[in-house]
Amino acid sequence: MKFSFKKYLLACVVTMSGVSAYAQDADSDSSVTEEKVMDAIVVTGALGKARSVADSTVPIDVLSGEEITAVPFTDANDIIKTLVPSYSISRQPISDGGTFVRPASLRGMPNDKTLVLVNGKRRHRSPLVQIGGSGTQGPDIATIPAVALKSVEVLRDGAAALYGSDAIAGVLNFQLKDAPDGGVITTDIGKFYEGDGFQTTFAGNVGLALGENGFLNVSAEYTAADATVRAEQYCESWFCVNPDDPRFSEQRILDFGADPEAFVAAAQAMGQDIHGAEVVQPWGQPPIDAFRAFANFGYDIGDNAELYAFGNYSQSTSDGSFFYRYPGNGTIEFLRLEDGSEYSPLEIFPGGFTPRFKGDVTDYSGLAGIKGDLGGFTYDVSGRMGHSEIQYTLYNTINPSLGPDTPTLFRPGDLINEEMQFQADFTKDVDFGFSESATFAFGVSYLDESYEIKEGSPDSYAPGPFAGQDPFGFCSDESLVADRTPTTTGAAVIAAGSTLNCADTDDSVYNVVGVGSNGFPGYSPEFSDSYERDSYAAYFALEMDLTDKFALDTAIRYENYSDFDAETVWKVAGRYSVTEFLNLRGSVGTGFRAPTPGQQGTTNVSTRLPNGFPVATGLFPAGGAIAGALGAVPLAPEKSTNYTLGATFNAGDFSLTLDFYSIALEDRLNAISTQDVSADPTAGQAYLNFLALEGAGVVGAESIGGVFYFQNAFDTLTQGVDIVATYDLDWSNGHSSSFTGSVNYNTTEFDSEVNEFFNAEAQFDFENGSPEWRGVFTATHQAGPVGFLARANYYGSYENSNGGSTVSVIQEFDPEILVDLEVSFDVSDDLTIALGARNAFDEYPDAGTIGETCCGRIYRSDSVVDWQGGYYYLRGVATF
User: Fold this and answer.
1) Domain hosting residue 802, numbered range
2) What is the pLDDT of residues 318-340, one digit of tens each?
C-alpha cells in the first residue's frame, strides 16, 4: 500500500503551484547568481579572457548555486540530470561496481567522453570500469557535495584541443564556493511513496577569512539512505518461488531433497534478512551511507600573485545484489564428497541464496598552485593528485568448488585509480593590428596514471576439488574405458553404502561447479596487476575579437601517451553579432580519447543475461592472451570530428539559444556481444571458445557460459539539437516569476559495419534504446516569503528488442512526464523551510515485457526514466 499522505500532499502542492528557490546562501553575492543567465561570466571553453554565455563561441549552460540548491537531490549526478536534458544517468542495481558508481552520458555519449573539471582543473577518474557497453571509466561526480558548489558550467561541445583526452562530448566544470565569510546549514529528510528508501542528509558550508588577503571555504555532507525494492517474486519458466503460480518448481525442490513449503519459507526469510522484502530477488535503490567534504583555499601574496589550493575526501558504503541462485542452476548442485555421500549448498542456504555485494569507496584529492601576472603574461602553475579506491566484500554466497568447506563471506579484491598531474598555463594579450583585441594562450602538461587490481583473499578465487569431475577418483577414466566403472576407491565407498553409480552420466560425481566467490570471483594473482602510463601535452590557443561583431577562437594540442602514438587535435570556433540581440556561432574541430589503463587491464567474471538467461560471463583484457585467443586485438584511441552551429537571442528578460551538433566518432570503444562458451563438444563455436579459454589457462573454464571483451568496434554518428529558453517576469505587486525550458533531441547511428562485434539485438538496442527527445521545464514564483516551484521532466519514447541474432520482438516504451513540486517559506531572513515532492504524481515507466526484465524485475533497471516512484521531502536551510 502506498503512503496514505500522498493525496493530501499532492493536493497541497498542486494548489500552491510548485516550489521556490531557497534563501540565498553565503555566495549570494556571486555574479553568477545575480546576473541573468545570458550575462553570466564563464571560464570554461576558453583559455584566454572569460566571456559571458551570450558572447561565448560555443554553447555553455551555467547552473547557479540557487538552481543547484533548489533541486531535491544531493547527488551531483542527479542534479545535473534534472537541469540539463542532454545529461542522462540511470540506476543499475545489479551491475557489479556500477551499483556504487553510476554511469552517465552527455549528448548520448558515455561519461568518459565528457571531461570533468573542478575549478577548471581535471578531476581524477573513479577506479570502476563499467563491465558492459562502452566500458566507461570516468570521474565519480557523486563525490562532489552539492553544498560545496558555487556554480556548474556545462560546455556542450567537443574541447579536446583545449583540455586533452576525454573532452569529446563536452566539459563539466564544477566551481567551488569561495566566500570568505558566512555559511549555510541544510537538513533534508524524505521517503518514497512506497514507504521505503528513507533518506537523511545533513550538509554545511562555511567561509573563513584569512586576514585581508585570503579565504578558506569548507563544505561537508553526510547522507544515509535505506534501500528500495521495486520487484515481484522470482518466478520464471526455469524456476519459480511462488507456490500459487503454475510454474512453481515443486519437483525441482523435491529432487534436491527439500520440502517445498519449507524451501519457500526459507527463501522468503532470506529476503527479509538481507534486504527487508519477501522477494528473493531485490530490484531497487541500494542503501548508502556517505560522508563527503571539500575545501577551497586562496591567498593573495602580493605582486599580482595568488596561492590557491583545493581538495576533497569522500567515503561511502553501499551494497547490492546479484541474481538469485536456485536449485539446479549450475551453482546449487549435488556434489559427491570424499566419503561417497552427497552434499548440496542447500545445507548452508536452505532457500537458495542471493549473493550480496558491498562496496566501500574512498576518494581523495589535492591540488595546489600559484597564479598571477608577470611581465605582461598571466601564469597558472599547479600540481594535483587524485586517489579513488573501491574495496569489495561479498557475503551471503559461496565458492561452489570448495563444497561444504566454503566460507560465506569473501574479500574478492580492490580496485585503485591514481593520478598525478603538473600543469602550466600562460596567456598574453597581443596586438596584431587587425583585431580589436586578441589573447594568446599556451601551456604544457604532464600526467601520470595508474590502475591497480589488488588480489582478493585466496578463498575468493581458489579452485576447489569440485571445479572438475570426479575429484576423488571414484570412477574409471572415460578416455581409457568405454563404460565407466568404479575404481578401487569408488568400490570402497559403494561398499560403505554410497549411492555412487559411475555408469550414470547424471550422477553427482560428474557435476562441475564454478570457481571463486559466486557472483563475483575474486582477483587471482594471474589477474592482479598494476597498469601504468604517462603522457605529456602542449597546446596553443588564439582568441580574437576581429571586430566588435566577430570573435574567433582557435586551438591546437599535441598529446603523447606512453602506451599509444601521439595525437594532434585542433578546433576553430566563431561568433558573429548580427544585431544587439542576435548572435550566430559555430565550431569545427577534432578530438580523441585514449583508452584508460583500467579499460585496458580490467577483468571480471559475473552473472549476466546475454540471451535472457543468467550465466557466468567473463570479461578479459583485449590485449591479453585470453581475449587474444578469441580474436581480440589491443585497444587504440577513439577519434572524433565535431561540428556545431547555433544562435543566441537575448532581449531584456527573454533569452533563447539554439544549437545543432554533429559528432562523428571513429574506432568507438565498446564491449562486443557476449560469445557463448560450452564444454559440450557438439556446441559448435561455443565449444571452440571453451577450448580457447582452456588453452589460455582459464581456471574453471567449464563453468563459464559466455565471454566478451572491449574493442574499437565501430564508428558512430551522433547528431542533435539543444534548445534553451528563459524568461523572467517581475509583477507590479513585488512578486517575481521565472520560466526555463530546455529541450534536447539526440540520435546515434552506426557509421560502419558492426556485424563482427554486435548481434542484431545489440545493434537495434544501441540505436533505439534511449529516448531521442528529452526536456526540462521549470517555473518558479516568489510571493513575499512564500515561493513555489514546478518542474516537468519529459522523456520521449524509446524501444528495446529481444532475440539475439535476430530482432524477433520489440517493445516500445511510451513517453513519460515526471513532475516535481515544492513550496517554501522564509521563516526569517536566515531560515527557509520547504516541503516538496519529486515525481509528485507517482509515475513509472512502462513495465518491461521482454528480454532483460526477468528474475523479479518489473522495470528495465537501466532505464533513464526513474522507476522508484514518487518521493516526498522536507528541507530546512539556515544561512549565517
Assistant:
1) 6-231+281-321+355-465+516-879
2) 988 889 999 988 899 999 999 99
